[in-house]
Amino acid sequence: MNAVLQNLLQLQTLEFGDVAGKSIETQVAKLRGLIPQPILAHYDRLRVRGKKGVAIIRNQVCTGCHMQIPIGAITAIMRGDDIQLCENCGRYLHVPDQSESVFIVEPAPAAKRATKAAAKPRKGKSLALVL
Ligand SMILES: [Zn+2]
């Protein structure tokens, strides 16, 4: 993972967490010192509005705004050589685990057909009700 993003994510966990105290403050100050100023400024702009500056990508979708993220951006994040912003909500994007699939798993066609058949109304019964 990108080192800056890792620090940013750690900072977010501390600042949005329930734990408070001197040790947290020290860690926050240390992390803020490690993150480049423009990145920190953008993160803070989101934070003052109560928004988290880092969003996780699940199934190729930004969990902050539920918009689909281009696969090119995801691969860049996974390589860890770049920090990407969500074009829609402006959050820094993070792919949680490289082993986790970022692709949407389509439901099996057999399962789809079964649901359709079950939802079909039975003609005989409704006719009996009308009469
Ligand atoms: Zn987003």
What does this structure look like?
Helices cover 50% and strands 8% of the residues. With 131 residues, it is mainly alpha-helical. It has one domain (3-130). The protein has a 3-stranded mixed sheet. A hairpin with a 2-residue loop joins strand 1 and strand 2. The longest helix has 14 residues, at 3-16. It is globular, with a radius of gyration of 22 Å. It starts with a helix and ends with a helix. 17% of the residues are buried. The mean pLDDT is 83. Bound molecules: zinc ion. Zinc ion binds at residues 55, 62, 64-65, 67, 86, 88-89, 91.
Which terms summarize this structure?
6 helices, 3 strands, mainly alpha, binds zinc ion, 131 residues
SSE pattern: HHHEEHEHH
The shape, in one word, is: globular
Number of helices: 6
Distance between the termini: 68 Å
Number of structural domains: 1
Helix content: 40-55%
- Low-confidence stretches are none
Short description:
A three-stranded mixed β-sheet has the order 2-1-3. The chain has helices at 3-16, 22-34, 37-47, 71-79, 109-119, 123-130, and strands at 54-58, 61-62, 92-94.
Helix and strand topology:
Blueprint: H1 3-16, H2 22-34, H3 37-47, E1 54-58, E2 61-62, H4 71-79, E3 92-94, H5 109-119, H6 123-130
Parallel strand pairs: 1-3
Antiparallel strand pairs: 1-2
Helix pairs in contact: 1-2
